[in-house]
Every structure is written in structure tokens, then in C-alpha cells.
Amino acid sequence: MKLRSSSFFGRAALALLAPALFAQTPGVLTVPDPPKLTVGRAADPVLKLKVSIRPGYHANSNSPSEEYLIPMKLTWDTAGPIQPVDVLYPKPKMEKYEFSDKPLSVFDGDFEITTKFKRAANPPLGPAFLTGKLRYQACNDKMCLPPKTVEIKLPVLMQ
Amino acid sequence: MKATFNSFLTSAALSLTLVLAAAAAPPEPAKRIAPAFTLKDSAGKPVRLADYKGKVVLLNFWSTTCGPCRLEIPWFVEFQKTYKDKGFTVIGIALDEEWDSVKPYVADKKVNYPVVIGTETIDKAYGGIEALPTTFIIDRQGRIASTHIGLVSKKDYEIEIQQLLR
């Protein structure tokens, strides 16, 4: 299931090492830097992460219709001042492509992935960062691009 | 004298036209020699490009997670069956990390040509594989006759193979 190749996975590694660069470079999939999340004591924080896929391309959804496809997956560091409780993906589209007999479960265009967090026990107050990783594989009707993992840096203000 | 001069002018104009036409026509780019490699198949047996010298080789970079790649594999199995005895072979280079996913897939599709797992070295040697499938057609002289990035029709592949086998 995993792939390797300097071009294929070298770039995935680079995406992890230089998230800011990749966030700014227009690619097939872009994730704008999320705004600061202010976390009070009263309510559990929720983040809606914006994702945009270039027209003509798609990424497999979080629950691909074929076992061989790499699912989209958003994960968060669990050691921060807030902890992920649930990650909610949008409703996928079922699209038919030239290379598949059956429609595939995909995301395309602009969409949001929602993460529900909870406050960690006795977190340090003040500004902090939480890191997340979005793994995906983008394809079009004719080809697939290397699977990528994009690092997300979420600024958090703990009150 | 006048007729001779006119004839000189005509032939000079013709020569100039031919020279200009020759200069305007882009030269045919020299075909690159396909980089040599030795990689192991799932049984650990080495697969060397050099062993297929004199044959037309369809070198296919693919992966099990790539839908368009999976569509092409049965075509390649068919080409191998049809053209193997005419001086042709397919070599599959899977860019999956492990044999775990490749082996069962190859067995299920009854792949009848050599399949190896790719390395960074071969990826770089072939210019860095940007997208899958990427397929190089290598002629009998060991030169890269064409490169296809993305899905190509079965018919187009077959025409190209037949032309190179002539």
C-alpha cells in the first residue's frame, strides 16, 4: 500500500519539512494557514480546516470505495494543550473516471474538514501551536500524483 | 547570355530556398539511451535491462494505489503474450514501498512479465517520476523512443510497439 520513490515520496517528506513553503505554493491541494483558535474554559474548541483541490483533480475520500486507494486522513498531535476528539470529513462525491468501472468516493473543489477538540487537563495558558498532518493522494482522470503529507500548524491561544 | 543569367538566378533562388527550408526544419532530437538498471523481482532474481538488448521494451512505472496504472496492466499482459516471441518485453517497476501489496496484485492479474520494486536511483536515472503511470518505450537499439505520462490508449501503445518491432 505504501509507495516509494525519490520524486514520489521525496516530495512528501519535503512537504513535512517545509510546511510554510507548501502552504504558499499553489499545488493540486492547498490548505491555507488556519486562523488562531482561542480556547476558553467554557466551550470545547472546533476547527474548520479549509481545503482546496485544483479543478480537474480529486483526492480519495476518507473512506475510499476501493481498498487499494489511499484515504485522506487528518491527524493531530495529541500532546498539545488541546486534544482531538473527532475529525469529521465532508460527504464525499461518487465520481466515475475513465480508469475505473465503478464510481469512486472522492473529494474535489473546496471543502472543510472539521475537528472537534477538548481542552487538555491543566494546560499551560497563553499562545501555543498544535501540529496536524493531512495525508492524501490526488489523481485526475489519467494519472495519480505522489501521495503527500502536508503539515498544518494551528496557532492556539489558551485562556 | 540573358538566358544563362536567368537560369543562374533561378537556381540560386532554388538553392537559397532549400537552405532556408533546411535551416527552418527542426533537427530531430537525438534519442536518449535508456539508463541501465539491475533490480530484483519478488523471488530475488535480478532483472537487468541489459538482458533485453535488441528487444523493444515497454518500461512501466506504476503502483498498486494508482487507478489508471491498474487499468493498463491487463493490456501489458496481453502485449507480452502477443509480442514476446517477436522481440518484445514489458518490465514493470512498482513504486510501492514493499512487495506486500505488489505480490498479491501481480498474482491476481496473472502478470506474465518481470516486475521489480523501484528505487530512488532508478527514479532519478529516468528523470524523476512525477506522476503514475509513466511509461518509456525503448527501441531495439536501447534508446528511449517515447515517454508517456498518464494513461494512454491501448491502441496507441500497440501501434507504437508494432512500428518498433518492424
CATH hierarchy: architecture of chain A: Sandwich
Indicate the mean pLDDT of chain A.
Answer: 87
Written as H for each helix and E for each strand, in order along the chain, the element string of chain A is HHEEEEEEEEEEEE
CATH topology heading of chain A? Immunoglobulin-like
Ordered list of secondary-structure elements with their pairings:
The complex is a heterodimer of chains A (159) and B (166).
Chain A: H1 6-17, H2 19-24, E1 29-30, E2 37-39, E3 46-53, E4 58-60, E5 73-76, E6 82-88, E7 93-95, E8 104-107, E9 110-119, E10 126-136, E11 138-139, E12 148-158
Parallel strand pairs in A: 2-12
Antiparallel strand pairs in A: 1-3, 3-9, 4-8, 4-11, 5-10, 6-9, 7-8, 10-12
Chain B: H1 2-24, E1 38-40, E2 46-48, E3 56-62, H2 67-83, E4 88-94, H3 99-108, E5 115-117, H4 120-125, E6 134-138, E7 144-149, H5 154-165
Parallel strand pairs in B: 3-4, 4-5
Antiparallel strand pairs in B: 1-2, 3-6, 6-7
Task: Please give a structural write-up.
The complex is a heterodimer of chains A (159) and B (166). By secondary structure, chain A is mainly beta. Chain A has one domain: Thiol:disulfide interchange protein DsbD, N-terminal domain (Immunoglobulin-like, Sandwich), CATH 2.60.40.1250. Chain A has 2 helices and 12 strands; from the N terminus they run ααββββββββββββ. Chain A has helices spanning 6-17, 19-24, and strands at residues 29-30, 37-39, 46-53, 58-60, 73-76, 82-88, 93-95, 104-107, 110-119, 126-136, 138-139, 148-158. In chain A, strands 1-3-9-6 form a 4-stranded antiparallel beta sheet. The longest helix of chain A is centred in the first third of the chain and has 12 residues, at 6-17. Chain A starts with 5 loop residues before the first helix and ends with a strand. The model of chain A is unreliable at 9-26 (pLDDT under 50). Chain B has 166 residues and is an alpha/beta fold. Chain B has one domain (38-165): Glutaredoxin. In chain B, 41% of the residues lie in helices and 20% in strands. In chain B, the strands form 2 sheets. Chain B has a 5-stranded mixed beta sheet with strand order 5-4-3-6-7, with helices on one face. In chain B, strands 1-2 form a two-stranded antiparallel sheet. Chain B is globular and about 45 Å long. Chain B starts with a helix and ends with a helix. In chain B, 31% of the residues are buried. Mean pLDDT of chain B is 89; it is low at 1-5 and 16-22. Classes of the chains: A mainly beta (159), B alpha/beta (166). The A-B interface holds A 1-8, 10, 66, 68-70, 97-100, 104, 137, 139, 141-147 and B 63-71, 95-98, 100-101, 105, 118, 120, 123-124, 128-133, 149-151.
